[in-house]
Design goal:
The protein is mostly helical. The protein has one domain: Orthogonal Bundle (Arc Repressor Mutant, subunit A). Helices cover 62% and strands 7% of the residues. It is built from seven helices and two strands; from the N terminus they run H-H-H-H-E-E-H-H-H. A two-stranded antiparallel ribbon has the order 1-2. Strand 1 and strand 2 form a beta hairpin. The relative contact order is 0.13.
Amino acid sequence: MKSIQHRSDCPISYTLDILGDKWMLLILRDMIFAEKESYKEFMQSGEGIATNVLADRLSILETEKFITKKVSPANKKSFVYRLTDKGITLIPLIMEITLWGSAFNPKGGNKELLKKLKKDKEGVVAEFTAKMKERTFKSVARV
């Protein structure tokens, strides 16, 4: 597995070492909002990630314990990726990034989600956190 060499002990530098790459955030976005969990599903995202880049970023997220990788119960030749508790703690950050991006790119984004976030951000974060925790629990129970 690939690991990251952290540049310093600065909290911002640590965060950027892991999440500063656009693909990391898009993979996390797909896991949280679209409930994607397989390599094939990540490849179908609109941004067109290369297979080697996807494999590398999933490996880093797994090494850094943001996600787990388990053999798929449906197909023993493939894997499912799920957020860990550490990964789930990123949900509020992802929501903030979503709100910030929508403020400067009003054409993009899920309008219904954005409306909910603007009305009750804490409630939406709690909802997605609970959903991801449930998925994590189910993956452990099934595999």
